[in-house]
Amino acid sequence: MNNSIYPCLWFDGQAEEAATFYCSIFKNSKITTNTPMVVNFELEGKKFMGLNGGPQFKFNESVSFVVECDDQKEINHYWKSLTSDGGTASQCGWLKGKYGLSWQIIPKRLGELMKGDANKSQQVMQALMTMGKIDIALLEQAHNQ
User: Fold this and answer.
1) What is the DSSP letter of 78?
2) Burial of 75 from C-beta contacts in 10 A (0-12 / 13-18 / 19+)
3) What are 71-110's pLDDT values in tens digits?
4) Distance between CA atoms of 41 and 69, rounded to whole angstroms?
5) What SS3 class is residue 68?
6) Average pLDDT over residues 19-40
């Protein structure tokens, strides 16, 4: 039995436009079905549905998509791409893209950098709180102090 669970994202007539935009940013991505009401797409092999539901509902920060990055180059790519053309930067790796979705662009090593004694964890957290886009080198520096 295939028990797939995937998000359905409610758009105000922009589902195809948003799916095309996201597929242009993430590798291994494609639109799999496109109808006037629903667009099914995959980002990095993960299934999503975009629904042209109308203006009744808007995205908010209570739900975000986490993008774990291997290195600073990846962080820079996703940050620049998702904040382009109307997206807005926030704090600690969070941003809101031009379609209103919230994203967290973080290094895969963030949990590792937060581990250790309480002093190291606090130093990393203090450094993180000063950042919009995460700078891995500054987090490593805070961890190694």
Assistant:
1) H
2) buried
3) 999 999 999 999 999 999 999 999 999 999 999 999 999 9
4) 21
5) strand
6) 97
Structure confidence at residue 21 (pLDDT):
98
Which residues pair with residue 30 across a beta bridge? 42
> What pLDDT is stored for residue 145 in this prediction?
84
DSSP state letter for 98: T
| Domain parsing of the chain, residue ranges | 1-54, 110-144
How much is the pTM? Answer: 0.92
Q: How many CB atoms lie within 10 A of CB 114?
A: 15
Which one-letter amino acid corresponds to residue 130? T
- Quote the pLDDT of residue 42: 97
Q: Can you point out the beta strands (E) in the chain?
A: 8-11, 30-34, 38-43, 46-52, 64-69, 88-89, 94-96, 102-107
Of 129, 122, 124, 57, whose CA–CA distance to 93 is shortest?
129
Give whole-number Cα distances, 54 to 10, 11, 57, 90, 100, in Å: 8, 6, 7, 27, 14
Closest CA to 96 of 121, 65, 134: 65
Whole-angstrom distance, CA of residue 105 vs CA of residue 69: 7
Q: What architecture (CATH level 2) is domain 1-54?
A: Roll (3.10)
